[in-house]
Amino acid sequence: MKPHRPNPLWVAFCVTWLGCAGGEPEGSGAPVSGGGTWMGEELSAGCEPGDGGTPGADTVRVTSHLRFHTLVGVAERPEDMSARPPHVLVQDGGTFTRIDGTATDGGYQFAGVPQGTYYLRTGNAYVLTDARHVELGSNHVGRVDTVFTGTSATPMQLTLSNLAPWVFMWDSQNFSSLEVISGQVELAGEVYLHEEPQDGQTAVTASTAETWNHLNTVPVFEAAKGDALYVNQLGAMDAGTLPDGGAVVSRTVVRSTQTAPFDFTADGTTPLQVSGVMQSVPTQELALEWRLSEYTSRATQMHPAATLNKPVLYIEAGPHRPEHGTVGASGLLLRLELPARAAFNFTRRLAYGNPFPATWAQVGSAAYHLGHREMLPDGSGRMQSISIENMATRDLVTNLFASPLSPRLTPPRGLAIDGLDANVQRQVGATSPVISWLPPERGTPTGYRLALFRYVDDQGFVMAEFDGYFYVPGSTTQVRLPPGTLRPASIYKLRVLAMEITGQDLKGRPFQTLGGLPQSYATAVSSFFTTP
Asked: Which pLDDT tens digit goes with each residue over 165-174?
């Protein structure tokens, strides 16, 4: 039985979006100008959120529209926020005043919000903004009339032939696996085989398999609307040798098949039946120069006690070109992992398989993962390890590899809690401390994301529970946590992620602009701190 192990691609880059709509519909020479209808829905003319009226001087309007990136443009539909209505927090020194909104047609209206910066809370995220109209919607791929079920996973029954000879999972790179991706509805995920084929087998007949949709809940598939799946087999490919003579192995698509359109509604019990004859896929090449020493020399900027883990490179493909606004439900084309603590220049030509149409986008990602090991401040003497993707860059393949790879953005510096070094363990005394930092040495952040993690003991196993995000514009380098954010008698760690993203608008459209290309990230992490 194969362990239930998420593909690192989903962990690292799941749900990232790419800027504005526009460009040309696939298969057409005519530009998409917006307007009109598709599948009975209005198409947006551009990237601005739908007009919700002009707020008054002391009024803030909040809307949320789901944006569906289709073959012919971007369709929009309003999102119901009533289950988790947003609210506003206005700061005055160390105190905060909460303002609740009034539901209006298409959103919420907040009266009595003075000019200047305020906190907008939605779910477990806070947005620091001074905008009078904030659009909270998110991006999606596929038909605007897609219906999503209530389950994130579905059982599968597989009948696949003509596989490349199967390799059982003996190490982290050299093994076979299956993934499913749809170009019509939002679904992408790895297939988990409870009874894995033996080494050398070229067929799979599995009645006990499952897949998880890493992007959403499982959508309803409708044959009449062309909904289908790609089934990809991933395997190892020789990528040459290391400076010490060791072998380098990459993972890529080696075989693929596309199903005919089908009907299926996931209920968590009824299996999705998939059959097909796998086919060899075309291969492509790229030239790579990766200057790893420029990452390792900056490791201690993440934390003075940082340790070097592994550099990892990805290439992924999505069913919509970036000029349509998003890469979308992405399929892995290449994954290259180099040894821990690698600090050499890695120059190579890499080959990878690509089963998708030429109109699908190809995006590359280069990241160096770092770690941090620290003793828990609970008197137990236990050490706690964390792994962090610290410095990463993501761009179109043609742009990312056009020049040597090195960090475009480095970590925030001088991380502090109430003016004291956050890299030293201590107990914070304030119920509403100020988190501050300095801009990175390299790069110009368009925004920051502060994340809080609370560490809890679950029957002897220490787990990090996510306790909230703060999205902050790039011009701001401090945040006061609202009272109640930190729980009493708790152990915390915080991370500040610097983001440099083309077209990012954290004040007006904080979530719809998280994926512009190119984009770079770098993280600073605190030591543990406790609350009284």
From this structure: 999 876 667 8
pLDDT for position 318: 83
Each residue of 219-231: pLDDT tens digit?
Answer: 999 999 999 999 9
**Tokens at 232, concatenated:** 């990809």
Q: Tell how far CA 153 is from the center of its chain.
A: 19
Q: From CA 345, how far away is CA 282, in angstroms rounded?
A: 29
As a whole number of angstroms, the distance between CA 409 and CA 523 comes to: 10
pTM as predicted:
0.87
d(Cα 14, Cα 328) in Å, to the nearest integer?
10
DSSP structure string for 358-376: TTSEEEEEEEEEEEEEEE-
Distance CA 530, CA 232 (A): 47
**Rounded Cα distance, 339 and 133, in Å:** 47
- CA separation for the pair 46, 58 (Å, rounded): 27
Question: Residue 206 has which token pair?
Answer: 């599995």
* Chain mean position to CA 304: 27
Q: Tell me the average pLDDT across 139-150.
A: 89
CB contact at 8 A, 445 and 499: yes
Residues 6+ apart with CB under 8 A from 440: 301, 409, 410, 411, 412, 413, 498, 522
Q: Tens of pLDDT along 242-262? A: 999 999 999 999 999 999 999
Q: pLDDT of 45-94, one tens digit each? A: 333 344 444 556 899 999 999 888 776 677 888 999 999 999 999 999 88
Residue 26 has pLDDT above 60, yes or no: no
Altogether, the residues listed in the chain come to a count of 532
Concatenated DSSP letters for 394-435?
A: EEEHHHHTTS-B--SS---EEEEETTEETTS-EE---SSPEE
Let me know: does 160 contact 179? Beta carbons within 8 Å.
Answer: no
Find out whether 479 and 472 touch, Cβ atoms under 8 Å: yes
Kindly report the backbone phi and psi dihedral angles of residue 172, in degrees, each rounded to the nearest multiple of 5, phi listed first: -75, -10
Find the mean pLDDT for residues 506-514: 93
In the block, residue with structure tokens 């005919």: 260
The secondary structure of the chain in percent helix, strand, coil, rounded to multiples of 5, reads 5, 50, 50
Helix boundaries (H) for 142-218? none
Q: How far apart are the first and last CA of the chain?
A: 46
| Best CA proximity match to 465, nearest among 437, 487, 436 | 487
Q: What whole-number distance in Å separates Cα of residue 509 and Cα of residue 46?
A: 13
With cut-offs at 50, 70 and 90, classify the pLDDT of residue 20.
very low
| DSSP secondary structure letters along 198-215 | PTT---EEEEEEEEE-SS
Residue type, 200: G
CA–CA separation, 282 and 172 (whole Å):
25
Give the whole-angstrom CA distance, residue 406 versus residue 392: 9
Contact 411, 390 (CB under 8 A): yes
